Amino acid sequence: MANFTIGEMRRIITKVYPGESWKNRVKRMYDGQVVAIFYSFMENGKIDRFGRPIVKKSCGLVCTESTGSGEWVRTTGEQLSFW
Q: What is the DSSP letter of 77?
């Protein structure tokens, strides 16, 4: 797992939910609250270990949001291979 600064954590957790009110709420949070929410999101599968928000798909798969190197994983946690 990478080490993140408070600013990076704040930027990452703002991407978990799309609403503008969520982004404003995150901006006003204390640093300790940002850290707690960040690790909670990681534990609950909303953020992967690289700090990328996980986007849920209706077909039972999740894909890590990235610039092309995302991994597809079943919601059961099983990694899929597309070889």
A: S
